[in-house]
Write a structure and sequence with these properties.
With about 80 residues, the protein is of the alpha+beta class. The protein is about 20% helix and about 35% strand. The longest helix has 17 residues.
Length: about 80
């Protein structure tokens, strides 16, 4: 697979953020594929059985960043 990078940013309220994360979690739990929509066109990904997971919290003055990263190899599904 060639290198592809898609980044999207938007502002969501607490409820919308929770719904987005819940839908993503449900898709991961069910397996198969997941459609990841945010601010622009959605991306469909084939999900594996095992993920490499990383969580990072960064506090910089008045801003807090929580980054959750899931990695896997294509075709691992």
């Amino acid at each position: 697979m060639s290198h592809v990078k898609i980044e999207q940013q938007t502002s969501l309220g607490r409820t919308e953020t929770a719904r987005w994360l819940t839908a993503l979690a449900k898709a991961i739990e069910e397996g198969g594929t997941v459609e990841v929509p945010l601010a622009g066109p959605s991306v469909t990904l084939t999900l594996p059985e095992i993920f490499r997971c990383e969580a990072e919290v960064e506090v910089d003055g008045e801003e807090v960043e929580l980054e959750i990263e899931l990695k896997w190899s294509p075709g691992q599904g």
